[in-house]
Amino acid sequence: MDGQPRTLLGLAPGGVFQANSVTQVAGGLLHHRFTLTSTYVEAVYFLWHYPASRPGWLLTTTVSYGVRTFLGNTATIRPAHPLGSIRLWVSLGKDYARTMIVLLPPSEGKTAPTEGSPIDLSRIEPFGSELFQARTRVIESLIEVSQRDEALDILGVGQRVFPEVVANRELWEAPTDAAFNVYSGVLFEAGKIADRGLSYQASESLQVLVQSALFGLVDLSSRIPRYRVSMGVKLPQLGSLAQYWKPHLDSLMTMMSTRQLVVDCRSGAYIKAWPGLDGDHDLLRITALRDRNGKRTVVSHAAKKYRGILAGALMDHAPELLESFDCVIGIARGLVGQNGVVDVEIRERRGFLELALVTE
Fold first, then answer.
1. Contact (CB, 8 A) for 257 and 281
2. What CA–CA distance (Å, rounded) separates 226 from 212?
3. Distance CA 188, CA 311 (A)
């Protein structure tokens, strides 16, 4: 076809837009379910996959816009996955808002509130009622363990934090504060989350959640006490907390994240509590790489710093977020030249995309 005029044969009367070049898995119009559901009565969902393994072929690297369908003039089509497989949401006369859900790990060290009402589990978001009993069990178990002689061994901590273990015994009576003030580790300091939390409010465009060993999930604005327990701990009555929380969170998070973009700044045991690989959402995991003379290696502990910096930038841009990979990548690229960030690298993984902030 080189040198010859190319035509779309009338397939896209409204024009086309370029698909991203990372879409390299061969495919076409895949045979996936095509349903109307009770949750989204007015929505029809299908997957149309455009491979880009033939960059010289026009049809394999473009997504048709304006293709005639039985849906008529009421259908609106908007891309929800610009990288990897291209997914198109088709809604019948109704446009569903997408929320960017940012998942953070907690800090090991926490700032103890000096005043404030005791904890009210019914007011901890998200899932105040759904997780009420599960959260109660973990708190009661942690209080009991913290009174044992072997408490430090069970919780995997040293003598230095013994006062925090003792404080666990008073969790029901301890004063509370907004989570953005209680969590105070590297990630939260780098992202200036406490300062940004003052103007934060969960909205249709952004929700920031902390994966907590004690509460499962906590919205930044929920009031919590200081506590000392990590997701890798095995409580005698409950077992591994990551495994304890997983069945409680799977269905709830799968439902909450439906059609949303999840920006995952967690690692290790906190990912195990809700891997996020299943469900009808887009998943972008954040990591960090160090560049030494052109060779890039994974950054471990310092990754918290760069995840925090990106999370803070997303909070700053909340009113203008477009809830897409491109939006997050654009904000990440805006960090280049600051705090040692020299580049942004995107990798396609099995079931998710990985965004790495590259440092010197």
1. yes
2. 12
3. 9
Residue 186 and residue 303 in contact, taking contact as beta carbons nearer than 8 Å: no
Sign of CA dihedral 109, 115, 116, 121: positive
Mark 80-118 as b/e (b = at least 16 C-beta within 10 Å).
Answer: bbbbbbbbbbbbeeeeeebbbbbbbbbbeebeebeeeee
| Six token digits for residue 267 | 């690692």
Taking CA 71 as the corner, what is the angle to CA 30 and CA 76, rounded to the nearest 5 degrees?
85
197 Cβ contact list (under 8 Å, min separation 6): 178, 179, 180, 181, 220, 221
Residues sharing a CB contact under 8 Å with residue 193, sequence separation 6 or more, in sequence order: 104, 180, 183, 187, 220, 308, 311, 312, 315
Per-residue pLDDT of the chain (360 residues; tens, 9 = 90+): 445 554 545 554 544 434 443 333 333 333 333 333 333 333 433 444 444 333 333 333 344 444 433 333 333 333 333 433 333 333 222 334 478 999 999 999 899 999 999 999 999 999 999 999 999 999 999 999 999 999 999 999 999 999 999 999 999 999 999 999 999 999 999 999 999 999 999 988 899 999 999 999 999 999 999 999 999 999 998 999 999 999 999 999 999 999 999 999 998 889 999 999 988 999 999 999 999 988 999 988 789 999 999 999 999 988 776 667 888 999 999 999 999 999 999 999 999 999 999 998
Query: Which one-letter amino acid corresponds to residue 201?
Result: Q
Peptide bond into 55 cis (omega under 30): no
